[in-house]
Design brief:
This protein is of the alpha+beta class and 382 residues long. It has four domains: 29 residues; 97 residues, no CATH class; 127 residues; 95 residues. It contains twelve helices and five strands. The longest helix has 39 residues. The termini are far apart.
């Protein structure tokens, strides 16, 4: 038994030695691979370019320590390339192939990091553009651009959903900076919401004609979409913005559909027409009344026929230069009613004309400065 145990011990020792031998071989192979990759140290020491070779691997070690840092990768990859050039000059026989292979790896890492930074910058610019679109938007709608604005409103709603899907973290440094750029508009919207809601509703209820009603109704719809974007945005004033959205929503509900707006406008128009009266004349002067008739006819695009002129001033009013006080002309007002080819009658109220002073008298030509025009019923012409 003792011999058997001794044999086992010897076999164990032999296995340990074999294992140790294998480890040594593996270690030599690893060192050989390292030397092959990082240069032969013995050769390096003998090379006249040994200082540049050493520097090259120092630059590599710095990049290995920070493989994603754009500044470190850029600085050290350029320095490593310079080292290779210096090695070529100092030792033309030195095998720089492993160094060039290593450098290519880090140059690629630098390009990747740089492109990543560019991509991030592009993403930040996209985010800034999105926030500017949503929170610095112009919600005004003119009659001429109504169709385009209706499409813009739908696109705006889509962009709002896009923002929500980003699930932005307002505490992120870059995101917070972008948010700050639009906060002034958000703050202003919060300050003026009560005044604006009243103004929008009052104006909407005052419009009579369908075309301007459509445009103003679209503006209110745009504001409603804007406040929806505000309450869903990455802002700390969540409660206030939600309250503002509810105020706009309640206003939209009170205004009702576009058809309701048209019906209300039609009724209001009928009431206004019924109560529109021609102002009474303060003086009678047929000569001056004819001056007003001629001034009316002189306007381009006029198709009506004057049926009555009521003078609103008793006489001409002198008009002087505000700075010098020099007499420049005279002015006078009247109310004019004309019958249109359609059979309707139009009142041109506060019809103001001007005649230049020529030094010895006044020009016979009258310039029309302003007037207010509205439909009037013939029975209200007196």
């Amino acid at each position: 038994m003792a011999q058997d145990e001794l044999r086992k011990v010897r076999e164990g020792v032999r296995e340990v030695k074999n294992t140790a031998r294998e480890v040594k071989v593996a270690t030599k192979e690893t060192k050989a691979m390292t030397n092959e990759f990082k240069g032969n140290k013995e050769k390096d020491e003998a090379s006249p370019a040994k200082s540049y070779i050493k520097k090259f691997w120092e630059y590599v070690e710095k990049m290995e320590a920070a493989p994603t840092d754009l500044n470190i990768l850029g600085t050290n990859s350029r320095a490593a390339a310079t080292s290779i050039n210096n090695i070529k000059v100092k030792d033309k026989n030195y095998d720089i192939a492993p160094l060039e292979t290593e450098l290519q790896k880090w140059q690629q890492a630098y390009d990747d990091a740089k492109n990543g930074r560019v991509g991030q910058r592009g993403a930040n610019n996209d985010l800034a553009s999105l926030l500017n679109l949503l929170y610095q938007v112009n919600t005004n709608v003119s009659q001429q651009e109504l169709d385009n604005k209706l499409q813009e409103i739908e696109q705006y709603k889509t962009k709002t959903n896009e923002l929500v899907s980003l699930n932005l973290d307002p505490t992120d440094k870059m995101t917070a900076a972008i948010i700050t750029n639009v906060k002034s508009r958000v703050t202003a919207d919060l300050k003026t919401i009560d005044k604006n809601v009243k103004l929008w509703e009052d104006n909407m209820n005052m419009i009579v004609d369908e075309r301007p009603a459509r445009a103003y109704y679209a503006m209110i719809q745009f504001e409603h979409a804007h406040w929806d974007a505000l309450r869903k945005g990455p802002f700390s004033e969540k409660a206030q913005l939600e309250a503002g959205y509810q105020k706009v929503t309640e206003m939209v509900n009170r205004i009702g559909s576009l058809e309701t707006v048209f019906a209300r406008g039609k009724a209001r128009g009928a009431e206004i027409l019924k109560n529109t009266k021609m102002p009474a004349a303060v003086a009678k002067n047929e000569t001056i009344e004819n001056v007003f008739r001629d001034a009316y006819k002189s306007m381009s695009g006029i198709t009506g026929t004057v049926i009555k002129v009521n003078l609103l001033d008793r006489d001409w009013q002198a008009f002087r230069n505000e700075v010098t006080g020099v007499l420049e002309g005279r002015r006078m007002r009247a109310a004019i009613v004309a019958k249109m080819p359609s059979g309707k009658h139009m009142l041109y109220n506060n019809f103001l004309i001007h005649q230049d002073y020529l030094g010895t008298g006044y020009s016979n030509n009258s310039q029309v400065l302003l007037f207010e025009d509205m439909e009037i019923l013939l029975e209200n012409v007196h």
